[in-house]
Amino acid sequence: MAKRTVVVTGSSSGIGASLAKMIAEPNTQLVLHARGNADGLEKIADACRQKGSSVATILGDLANEKAAIDIVDKAVDEFGGLDAVVANAGFPLFKNLDEGTIGDLEHAFRVNLFSLYSLVKAGRPHLARSGAGRIVAVGSFTAHAFYNGIPHYPMSAPSKGAVEVAIKAIAADLAGQNILANCVAPGEINSNATEVSDRRKIVQARIPLGRLGTAEEVAHAIEFLISPRCSYITGQVLHVNGGLFM
């Protein structure tokens, strides 16, 4: 089996960390990114190395386009190519319209949406050369949480909704180069990145399965979408939310 190179942004904790450890094996070369948590990132990188993966790490704020370019350059410089990009870095913003600013909204779009485009634009030539390029963006249930008393996120949800539209446009544009692009939209996940508050309890009470999801459950969905087993799925949004939205 040929080696493949996979970029995972936001991989020092949560979904990104779970995915990195899940796909780590001798034939998978990983480029793991975090914004600033160097210690957490190295801990995950070491866990992946113990499973046989070659791992490169990089820090950078994806609100800046150069960070995305640097990540792709790191993959190519270290491993000679790129086979899959998982755009997982992102954040919810727990502010209402009165509390939030246009600057907050702009920052959410830069991190959640613009960074996806920057990664895709920088990675596209290498993904095309791969012959089986894969792109997975991580969206959010917050792009759909506007009814039934579910807490909503007016300052960050628009950017997550835009990610879903963007992935369809990217998939259509790159299909002729045998690059598949999909989105995974997690529900409320029980991880350190989730605000511990009444918000989570409210959402959990409305989940038909009666519990929060785990980072591993979301990672399993991403793992499939970047694998060779996924060969005829593109431009889709896969909701991993316990039935919160059907």
Major β-sheet, in short?
Answer: 7 strands, parallel
Number of helices: 7
Q: How far is it from the N-terminal to the C-terminal residue, by CA?
A: 38 Å
Which CATH top level class fits?
Answer: Alpha Beta
CATH topology type: Rossmann fold
Radius of gyration: 17 Å
The coarse overall form would be globular
Q: Strand order within the widest sheet?
A: 3-2-1-4-5-6-7
Catalogue the unreliable spans.
Answer: none
Write the H/E string, N to C: EHEHEHEHEHEHHE
Measured by DSSP, the beta-strand proportion falls in 15-25%
InterPro entries: NAD(P)-bd_dom_sf, SDR, SDR_fam
Pfam families: adh_short_C2
Organism: Aquamicrobium defluvii
Protein name: Short-chain dehydrogenase
Task: Give a written overview of the molecule.
Belongs to the short-chain dehydrogenases/reductases (SDR) family. It holds the Pfam family adh_short_C2. This is Short-chain dehydrogenase. The chain has a single domain, classed as Rossmann fold. It is built from seven helices and seven strands; from the N terminus they run βαβαβαβαβαβααβ. By secondary structure, the protein is α/β, with parallel strands linked by helices. It has a seven-stranded parallel β-sheet with strand order 3-2-1-4-5-6-7, sandwiched between helices. The radius of gyration is 17 Å and the shape is globular.
